[in-house]
Amino acid sequence: VPMVRVLFEQLATPRNLPAGLDEILDWTQEVFGRLDSEQFFSRFERREAVTYFYEPFLEAYDPKLRRELGVWYTPPEVVRYMVARVHESLQRDLGIELGLADERVHVLDPCTGTGSFLIEALRTAARVLDEQHEDDLVGQQVKQAALSRFHGFEVLPAPFIITHLQLGLFLAELGAPLDSNTDERPSVYMTNALTGWTEKSEQLLPIEEFRTERAAAGNVKRAEPILVVIGNPPYNGFTGVGDEPEDDLVAPYKEGLSDAPWEITKNKLDDYYIRFFRVAERRIAERTGKGIISYISNFGWLGDPSAVLMRRHLLNAFDRVYIDNLNGDSRETGKKTPAGEPDPSIFSSRLSRSGIQVGAAISLLVRTEDRSAPQPRVLYRDLWGSTKATDLEASLKVPQDDLPYEELAPNEKNWFRLRRWRPRPGYDSWPSLIDLAHTPPKLGLNENRAEVLVDSDREALARRLAHFLDEDIELEDLDRNLVRGLLETWSGYDPAPVREALQAHGGFDETRLKQFLVRPFDLRWAYLETRTKLWNRSRPLFQAASEIGSEFLLVRKNAPRALDGAAFLLSAELSDQHALHKDAYAIPLLLAEDENLEEITPLFSLEDDSGAESPWRPNLSRFAISYLTEMGFKNTSISRDSARLLWLHTLAIGYSPLYLEENADAFRGGWPRIPLPEKPELLEESAALGARIGALLDIGTPLPGLDSSTVAHLRQAGVLARDDGCKPQSEDLAVTAGWSKVQIRKQKSGAISEIVMPGGGKIVRRPRTEAEERDLSSTQLAALGSQVLDVYLNDTTSWRGIPESAWNFKIGGFHVLRKWLSYREEAILGRPLSWSEARQFQSIVRRLSELSLLSENLDFNYRAATGSMDQDSLLSIALDEA
User: Fold this and answer.
1) How far is CA 103 from CA 141, 142, 349, in A?
2) pLDDT tens digits, one per residue of 554-595
3) Pairing of strands 454-455, 291-298
4) What is the distance between the alpha carbons of residues 304 and 240, in angstroms, rounded to a whole number?
5) Mean pLDDT of the chain, nearest integer
6) Is 40 helix (H, G, I), strand (E, B) or coil?
7) Which residues of 613-652 are buried (b: 16+ CB within 10 A; e: fewer)?
8) From CA 710, how far away is CA 444, in angstroms rounded?
9) 549 near 608, Cβ under 8 Å?
10) Alpha helices in 100-150 (DSSP H)
């Protein structure tokens, strides 16, 4: 490989070495001098050494680079399975009898790594040729395949060199070694596989051997008749868009994504593996015209709303799709099987026990030449548990079409999903949230000013805005440290005209300081203004609804993940559009102004605390009003309680663990659907449960029995204590246990913002003490979990005895307690916690515990709403509760 030779010669020439490097190279040479080279290379020939070189080397050499590129060594069982299925598909679907051994079959691994897929493909070809001929020419035929039709691309030097070493050893083992006198080399090139597929002007490279390497790679990209693309593309959630000519690579997967019916405004389509899918699709479907793609990748694309057009594009381009879902995801399932057993990542190994956090899937996409089938055939199966790698390989004993695959029917209605989607029977017949509201859900308020208009300290926020709007101070004389991002030019915001307009309206107005929900149980203060572009999206409709005392039901559309906890959040305050993960849509329960409502119901009044009347209307659709009327509730337009009835029922349904388990995966394809009870008393009982949930969610309103005179079964939960037994002091309230990590992001405007991510923190899990268990019934113990946690603020102080269920409680994708802590680290907050904040955390613990204790009742309520319980069962439940 001339390019590598040049690099080596540069390194091996003493005059070119940086100071001190020659001594390190001498040490290295001494180490290699002690090796038993025969044993060393035999380990390579048996492919035992690669995992010890590749991942540990990258982790030690450049861990940041490894994470950015998402580099993971593919398990050998997976490699053997994928190559065997490609070989079988070539024979079955494309009519190529010799499969990978056929001289017409050109194979490309665009992310070669250490060459596992290429070597296994060559081994398969050798076996077929040996069975056919049984002569000494097989090795030469396989070598010719390695030189001319089994191609690989790699961008990292270390695995690139290992690939060449492994291929050379493999060919020598076959009796067909590479001839160094004629510069024979396998068709594996060091290149960026995502660029160079079309003829475009390229930057001039300074070394001839580098230009030769790129030209050879370009010939493979543009001229070779690639029939198979196989490999393990790198995984990275967001890689950004590069500077190379093909930045629009995934444009076909994005075009129209923000339009109806998808309305996806933020997508995840710049992940490396998505780009590799597009490279493969374009090469097979648009150039060769037939062929096979087989990737093991992040399984997110199978169902993520962002990838809906990608899925449609691939389904239009291929005739058969096989999906082997290897699961192992930490977010969706917590790496647990449906039976609750461990479900590790397929990439777990002795050197990396945890593997990766995201689930993985093997996809095999086949495009035939005649393309006669009107619809592609999509076959899907799940593999679970600790033995999935060996199970996968063992399944090779059975032809692929005889395996227990489930046939899917992806279409526009189910967002072309390539995963099993099986909510409980009848789910599709229930109304969705958008069917219940007259004014459809809209995203919450969007500040987009680096949280300069939101603060946990009311007085600090007041000082900031009062200073910014002070007419006696010129704009250029403002204290930048105090007003911070208000002097930056943000999206739709220019400080000078906005400041002048607000000063013309009277300047700083203390009445605009309002409590504001940032995340579940995370109330802060915001300066709310609708008359200028002070906020990016100030949502005047919501602010008007808040003025007449409306609550807001928060919900997600196309939830990015299943098993994300409670589906809804009820807020008595205005909320941020990211109050749920990723986007929180708000439904005001009452409307203050909406001229389109005149045709449905006249204007009614609601007295505020001063006795003045404010106009209001229920935010209920014709369908919802008709349903309530049939149930006997005819006063929805004059009774606030009746106007809230249906929404409180919705809240109760959204907190039922059974409802979430049965249907949560369906939320990823649209708005959640809600079963409606057939009897008015069931609706009232459900709404009463919803009201109890709403009270528990309202952290701004103290609750007797939780925040004072605590009920016995929660008296020991979340008590603040020091490890040495001394009473905590103010200095013990600094949160320094590593609950957050800060990422710096640069906005398009040039402004710098900080993104706070949850950190690992410090937790001690332990059994309950006798005192912590004394006041709990067996039912309460079962609901709260078998263990408790001591959650540390710092090295010495913790909230003790937090029930497992409270610590694990999620709402709308947020791990509530962990998220709350991540924004209270001293490095973020700039100070220790106040005593009221420390007590607030304890209150959240107890409220989440109470929500957990409601689980059984909420499941009963859900089953009653679906009509899946008879009257005798309901009577039995009522008696038990009594």
Assistant:
1) 9, 10, 36
2) 999 988 777 789 999 999 999 999 999 989 999 999 998 654
3) unpaired
4) 19
5) 87
6) helix
7) eeebbbbbbeebbebbeebebeebbeebebbbbbbbbbbb
8) 34
9) yes
10) 116-133, 138-148
